[in-house]
Amino acid sequence: MGTDENNNKMTILVIEDDPVITEFLCTGLKYEGYEVTPKTAAKAGLDALQQATFDLIILDVMLPDIDGFEVCRHIRDRGSDIPILMLTVKKEISDRVKGLDSGADDYLTKPFCFDELLARIRALLRRSGKIRENKKLQAEAIVLDMETREVSRNGKRIDLTPTEFGLLELFMRHPHRVFTRETLLNRVLGYDYDGGTNIIDVHISHLRNKLGDRPPRLIRTIYAMGYAFYPEETGT
Question: What is the pLDDT of residues 1-44, one digit of tens each?
Fold first, then answer.
């Protein structure tokens, strides 16, 4: 969750000019409990930094006025040590090195999976001392280890695909919250996935089978809406 040790919302400044990606980031991060301020240009982002305090910056490289590398250097020249996660379509190692040399703390290429973005954000916030996160999630007899990426139920290991792991993590972090198929699709497969939402039903079915999730289910189908996780129901 996007809160610090005092249960205050963590604040993220998003400097990104693509409206699709901006909406994707803002919607997902707000779901996770972060407070998000979006800016579509470098100058607007730098102005926002002078007017408010943020816990982390998500910075696009290809901005309409000033490129992200220069923005990053400018922030560091001010003496700020705020964690910066850079986003770019550039995949060459030289570009990644350039981003890190300009002062960025991490670098993520587009298109990206939201779960990977979240993991990188949490790692940066832990590294900066902003949060101390429990590395294990537990619901009834299910244990999900964020560090080893292992899942077990009643002590028995369950092998999940990355997509299944991402779905289970999302459900366990947000019990009782109803997620639409569209939201789940964007969260675990990325904003650029152009297939139908039925693929989510397939992944949910496989996840239920591996968990031994029988009625009454842990992962409930909410009619005409989507899915929700009810950890107090054992499903056995």
Answer: 666 555 578 999 999 999 999 999 998 899 888 999 999 999 99
Angle between helices 114-127 and 162-173 (to 10 degrees): 60
- Flag whether 56 is in a domain: yes
Q: Are residues 107 and 150 in the same domain?
A: no
What is this structure's pTM? 0.74
Torsion of CA 16, 39, 57, 172, to 10 degrees: -80
**CB within 8 A of 183, min separation 6: which ones?**
27, 31, 226
Which of 60, 16, 20 minimizes the C-alpha distance to 37?
16
Please tell me the predicted confidence (pLDDT) of residue 1.
60
Same domain, 96 and 174: no
- Report pLDDT for 191: 74
Q: What residue numbers bound the domain in which 206 lies?
A: 136-229
| Predicted confidence (pLDDT) at residue 72 exceeds the cutoff of 50 | yes
My answer on whether 101 and 152 are in the same domain is no
Domain total for the chain?
2
- Domain closes at, from 127, 145, 177: 127
